[in-house]
Amino acid sequence: MARRKKSDRDKEVDAALDELLKGHRPEDIFGEDGLAQQMTKRLVERMLEGEMTDHLGYEKSSVEGRDGGNSRNGKTRKKVQTEKGEFEIVVPRDRDASFDPKVVPKHRRRLPGFDDKVIALYARGLTTREIQSSLQEIYGADVSPSLISAVTDSVLEDVKAWQSRPLDAVYPIVYLDAIHVKMRSSGHVQSTAVYVALAINLEGNKELLGLWVGENEGAKFWLSVLTELQNRGVQDILIAAVDGLKGFPEAIETVFPRTEIQLCVVHMIRNSLRFVPWKERKKIAAGLRTIYTAATLEAAEQALDAFEEAWGSEYPMVVRSWRANWANLSTFFDYPPEIRKVIYTTNAIESINAQLRKVVKKKGAFPTEDSVRKVMYLAMTRAAQRWSRPIKDWAKALNHMAVVFEGRVPL
Q1: Range of the domain at 63
Q2: Per-residue model confidence (pLDDT) at position 178
Q3: Domain co-membership, 222 together with 349
């Protein structure tokens, strides 16, 4: 690829930088009170002076300001936090105290960009102490834990708006799952469920619908989650992919009676292998695979019969579980092979949950539900930034759904 020729302006900037940096060592530029910090300080102060000029309507020391009412009235000193560390700036004042600067607003002690750095570190799962240490080490900024909490608390407004936003009327597929975190309550640490709803929308794109914090995972709580989705505009869900929680299908049917339930095959296999000794698990997993990878429903039922004949006497609980849940396990056989895996496994949401677990791993016990919401929201939105394209073969899948769910897929 051809290189862009430097413009005259580029050459002027390079020459100015060469002159500015001449004879300076790296620590003279980037160290505490170094050239980079001083330039930021001077730039901020010049911007403040420019704002004051605009506020008053005349330049500093101009005759227009004499006996003209409001005027400059000295300066105050103020310490601010930036990405390059803490430094002191001078802020101009006016006589009637009506000047309200934009670059460093009144009562604000952090420059734009600083909050983003704190929130980015928090989103990666760093604890308050680790964030404090990182800011000190990288930027030389001495930040208190209370300031970090105040910065990250600003995220709660975003969480509230995101959690209450209107949703689409129809979602072809919705995955519902929960992960568990430790939370401190009344001096005790207890397990708390965080419920997550992930959808595939009509365009074939993944869309996080919300997160909810509850005492433990249960069908009753899921009922309240589904009711909230309905209140936010969801009128129909074609397929709900869920784990094997008892009462879950009934909870979905109460709110969305026409929704087809698909139990997650991956969850089902995990639960089945709990009844199998370690040395036999590969054989049993291979046997179960012949069931859910069968070409047709009839072939799958024959594979289940064959599995029962081979292993039923030795592992009756495995067979009994698959038989009892077969109606909701076999839903995906109504769809083309290209999209079956999208339906029969909650891998999409499991991927999200894996990233959430990675973030919460360092946190230990959360002090409040709001602290859980902050971390989860930031981690989920960060993960969602990687979703850039629709699911493979989605157009074919949607066409098939339009036939199966006649009249329920908007044209």
Answers
A1: 18-156
A2: 82
A3: yes
